[in-house]
Amino acid sequence: MYESLVEKAKTCFASPDDKDLAFQLLCGAWVYLVIVSIQSYFFPAPYGKFTSASGIGFINRVTQIQMPASLGWMLQESQVLVSFCGMLHLYQNGMILKLLLLVPFVVHYFNRSILFPLTN
Asked: In degrees to the nearest 10, what's the CA dihedral of 83, 84, 85, 89?
């Protein structure tokens, strides 16, 4: 299931093996973290109490979009449910113990991202 994605990522990042690909992705995640942390320090996120008109037209148009809180919550939290695909991968490869460790996480986030917003 994931083999084709991993091979495409290896080609894209010119990684000879899985370990090198994992290292490059981890480094990219850390670079992203540092950039977003610095950006967040100097420029508040343009939503919530920080919503205001700025000189940037695109940001003004995007911050005018409104949606119900429950839908926003669902969209924000449901991204984690991609880990359900990880469960399928573990099941296909016979990694039952790792699958059992992932089940509570997926059930929690299913409750948090789907059930909770629909009941409130």
From this structure: 100
* Of the candidates 102, 111, 101, the residue with the CA atom closest to the CA atom of residue 84: 102
pTM over 0.85: no
Q: At 12, list the tokens.
A: 């894209």
Tens-binned pLDDT, residue by residue, of the chain (120 aa) = 567 877 888 888 898 988 888 899 889 999 999 998 888 777 766 666 666 656 667 767 777 777 888 888 888 888 877 777 777 777 888 888 877 888 888 888 888 888 888 887
Query: Are 109 and 77 spatial neighbours (Cβ–Cβ below 8 Å)?
Result: yes
- The alpha carbon dihedral of 44, 45, 48, 52 has a sign of positive
Q: Taking the CB of residue 91, how many other CB atoms lie within 10 A of it? A: 13
